Amino acid sequence: EVVCTNLLNNHHISGIICNFLDVTEIKKQQLEIQKMAYEDDLTGLPNLRAYETRLDEVINAAENQKYAIIHLNLDGFRFLMYLMGRDMANKLLVKIAAQIQSNLDFFIHILARINEDEFAILTTEIHKTALIEQLANDILQIFKRSFNVNSYNLAITIRIGISIYPESGKTISI
């Protein structure tokens, strides 16, 4: 950042004063704050705030467009965390997020971790109910396999809720 003051018209000074300030660190800190506000630090996925912001943008822009909101809740995750420890549970969450992203990336507009044991998916390119059902089945298939974490094969089940815009409503409520 450079701030210059023209003092050529001042009879006593007759010059230009420039102050230079390196704002690199400030910009890095601002980016880090932005990242912390909108990104889940464990999985790197968007968090609830980012998800709701994006969802609001999609709703406001939607004109005769159909899209689905898919809510995933991991069954027994807290019990697993108490049993195996937070570190193991965190590694499982990272694997789950990676599996969903890698297998379904084509269909997902945004995948977010919205709570400790909950994920949300927004699809905007799927316009037929049958394709949304297929996506839900594909998600279920991911959870039919166990996740290998620290040489443990961990099986976890999920509950899925699906809302389709505009049939299910026109407001944000998670």
SS strand fraction: 25-35%
The total count of helices amounts to 5
Output the helix-strand order.
EEHHEHHEEHEEE
Secondary-structure content class: alpha+beta
Count of DSSP E strands?
Answer: 8
The radius of gyration over CA amounts to 24 Å
Global outline: elongated
Helix content: 40-55%
**Mean residue pLDDT:** 85
Q: How is the biggest beta sheet arranged?
A: 4 strands, antiparallel
Query: Low-confidence parts lasting 5 or more residues at pLDDT below 50?
Result: none
Summarize the structure.
The protein is of the alpha+beta class and 174 residues long. The chain has helices at 24-38, 48-61, 77-84, 86-104, 129-144, and strands spanning 2-6, 16-20, 67-74, 110-115, 118-123, 147-149, 152-154, 158-165.
Description:
- This protein has 174 residues and is an alpha+beta fold.
- It is built from 5 helices and 8 strands; from the N terminus they run ββααβααββαβββ.
- It has a 4-stranded antiparallel sheet, with helices on both faces. A two-stranded antiparallel sheet has the order 1-2.
- α3 crosses α4 (86-104) and α4 packs across α5 (129-144).
- The two termini are 42 Å apart.
